[in-house]
Structures are given as C-alpha cells and as structure tokens.
Task: inverse folding
C-alpha cells in the first residue's frame, strides 16, 4: 500500500507490464483505465489494450528533457521490445519495484529497489482503486467537483502526443509487398470476422510486427524465445477450443516444427500463415551485426524449402502467395473457407523487402514527429 501511495504521489512514473501467461479480459479493462492516469508500457503479450511501445522509445530517446524517472512499477515476464529494455536501463530511476508472486528477482532494468510479493492482477486492481480514490479526493479539495480533467506530468503529456502520432503513422503506412504487408492484411481482415479467435505468433519478426497491428492478445514463446514448438503449441491449442486458431509463423520457425501438422486429429479451425522469406530475416535487422554476406547466409540459415509437400503429405489445405493481389484473394479464403482439415497459407517474400517495409515505418514515425 505504501509503495502504491508513493507511486501515486511521485511525478515522473511508468508502469511496465511484460508477458502474461494467458489472456484476462479483466486485466484488459484495468489497464485501459490505468492508462488515463499513467504511462503503461505493455505489449499484446500481456493485454489486448496494448500500444506499439517499441516505436515510442525512438521518440523518447531524442528528447533530452527526460533524463530521470522517479518511479517504475514492473510486472509480468519478458518484453519483446529491445528498445524499451535499453531505454529503461539507461535512465536514472529513483525507485523501481518488481511485482510478482514467486519472489524471483529479475532486475530487467538494472535499477531494482525491491520486490512486492503479489499477483499481477491483485496489484493492478489495488493500484486502480487507490488511484481513483486519490484523484477524487484531490479534485474535490481543489474545486468541490470530482469530475475535472486528470492532470498530467511532462512525461505522460509527451507519451500521449507521441502515441497518437505513432498510431496514425501505423494506420497510414502502406508497406511494400512483404511479411509486414501480409500481417497488416491478416489483422485488418480478421476484424471483419465474426467468429472467436486465438492468434499465435512465432517467433521473431512476426511477433514484433504482430505487436504493431494486433488489437488482441498474442500467444507466443518469449523468455527463452525458442523457435521450436510454436506450431505444435498452436496445433494442440486448436484441439481444445471451438475458436479459430491462427498461427502466424516465420519459415524457420515453421520448418523446425513441421511435424506439428502430422496429426490426424487437427480440424478446420487451425490455420497457419507461413511468412517464407527463405531465411531467418531477423538477423539482417539486428543493429550491430556487421557480418559479410558470404558468412551471413549461414547466420540467416538461407534455404529454398516450401511447405507444399508437407501439406500434401499430411492432408492439409495449401495456398501459395507471391504478390499483393494473390495475398488479398488468398487471405479471404484463408479466413472464410469452411473445411474439416487445417489450411496453410504460405506467403513468399524477399528479406530485402521485409527489411525495407519495417525500416520505412520507423523512418516515417521519426521524421514526421
Ligand atoms: C531453438 C532455437 N534455435 C535457434 C534460435 C535463434 N533464432 C532466433 S530467431 C531465428 C530465426 C527465425 O526465423 P524465421 O522463423 O524464418 O522468422 P524471421 O526472422 O524470418 O521473421 C533463430 C534461428 C532460437 N530462437 N531457437
């Protein structure tokens, strides 16, 4: 309670929520409300009410007005955003508390003050309740009226302005034909579907792009980050639910786990979109990996495999896509078609276009702010 009170009274403050192990609509609602009062850095791995935090750090890093942060509350497991981790590690944070109910110290941001032994949900509930009480008290003291606007510190004001800008850029930006365009097209088309969904992303660039476009919770393997087992996990998941289960996977992540499709029991509610750029594209997008091209092909694991044969052999529906027009037509089938067996949509892209698409959005966000 004391720590929550300190948090409410401190000036520059941030709540960070890493991956939570399952989707909880109550947490979505709490986070949505907390965002009216505080900066909440979270991704779709923790709640459906997340925002594209990776992009905002580019803007914050350019702002020299923000050197110190008074207080940070850190909940949940891993964050995908490397930018966020780097950013918080370089700031001077006066007080940083991790909230978890297993007592394990992580100190992700390297300024940890201590641990609060509590579940994420209970803590967020208490924080919201005390925040509302405090806000009402303050407003009534000031004006006799509890319904005034919530006052904001400079950090939160900049955050809100930048986030509006970023969300506008993400909406306006039309990537070249690439894995990014495929995910944008998938997420936008999904919004028109009336069935229940569960979406798994695997396991590198796909999750980063998914976090930009998805308005829903994302299932994925973070922490140890292994590319193995993501398709099997989604396949098993589809057998336990009547929802449509989608697995959006990179090619290496898919081929590593291709036997996931060797399962007679899989049904038509399981759909896999493979983004096949014939390599582990993430390795050419990592800053600081200056590796000569003749060696890079080994690092990226370049190959020429496709999923067609695997699908034939396992009685799985298969569609291949090689340009934007095919993408739009096949996406409609992928989402709408009623079948008894799973469908695979394999989208072939080039790693150069994938890189250009991703970098293009980041440039637009930075240059127009
Ligand atoms: C079991 C395992 N082996 C190796 C890695 C290292 N690794 C991280 S991302 C990645 C490549 C992923 O490639 P792909 O699934 O094609 O996605 P893309 O990067 O092209 O988006 C690899 C090999 C890992 N995370 N797990």
Result:
């Amino acid at each position: 309670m004391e720590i929550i009170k300190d948090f409410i009274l401190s000036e520059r403050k941030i709540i960070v929520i890493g991956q939570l192990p399952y989707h909880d609509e109550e947490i979505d609602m709490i986070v949505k409300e907390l965002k009216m009062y505080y900066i909440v850095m979270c991704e779709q791995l923790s709640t459906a009410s997340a925002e594209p935090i990776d992009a905002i750090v580019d803007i914050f890093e350019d702002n020299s007005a923000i050197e110190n942060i008074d207080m940070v509350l850190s909940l949940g497991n891993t964050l995908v955003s490397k930018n966020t981790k780097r950013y918080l590690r370089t700031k001077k944070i006066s007080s940083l508390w991790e909230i978890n109910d297993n007592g394990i110290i992580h100190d992700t941001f390297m300024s940890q003050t201590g641990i609060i032994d509590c579940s994420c949900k209970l803590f967020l509930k208490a924080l919201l309740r005390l925040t509302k009480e405090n806000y009402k008290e303050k407003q009534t003291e000031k004006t006799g009226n509890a319904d005034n606007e919530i006052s904001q510190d400079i950090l939160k004001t900049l955050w809100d302005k930048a986030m509006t800008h970023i969300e506008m850029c993400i909406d306006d930006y039309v990537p070249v034909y690439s894995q990014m365009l495929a995910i944008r097209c998938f997420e936008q088309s999904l919004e028109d579907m009336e069935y229940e969904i569960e979406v798994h992303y695997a396991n590198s660039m796909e999750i980063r792009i998914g976090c930009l476009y998805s308005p829903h919770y994302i299932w994925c393997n973070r922490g140890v980050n292994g590319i193995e087992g993501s398709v099997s996990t989604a396949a098993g998941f589809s057998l336990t639910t009547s929802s449509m289960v989608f697995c959006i996977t990179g090619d290496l992540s898919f081929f590593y786990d291709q036997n996931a499709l060797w399962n007679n029991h899989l049904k038509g509610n399981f759909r896999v979109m493979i983004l096949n750029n014939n390599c582990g594209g993430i390795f050419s997008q990592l800053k600081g990996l200056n590796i000569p091209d003749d060696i890079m092909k080994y690092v990226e694991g370049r190959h020429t495999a496709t999923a067609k044969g695997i699908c034939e052999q396992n009685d799985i529906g298969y569609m291949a896509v090689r340009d934007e027009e095919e993408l739009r037509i096949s996406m409609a089938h992928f989402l709408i078609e009623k079948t008894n067996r799973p469908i695979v949509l394999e989208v072939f892209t080039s790693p150069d276009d994938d890189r250009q698409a991703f970098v293009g959005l980041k440039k637009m966000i930075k240059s127009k702010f």
In short: Residues 203-206, 225-228, 250-253, 277, 280-282 surround thiamine diphosphate (CB under 6 Å). The chain has two domains: 2-144+158-167, 176-367. The mean pLDDT is 93.
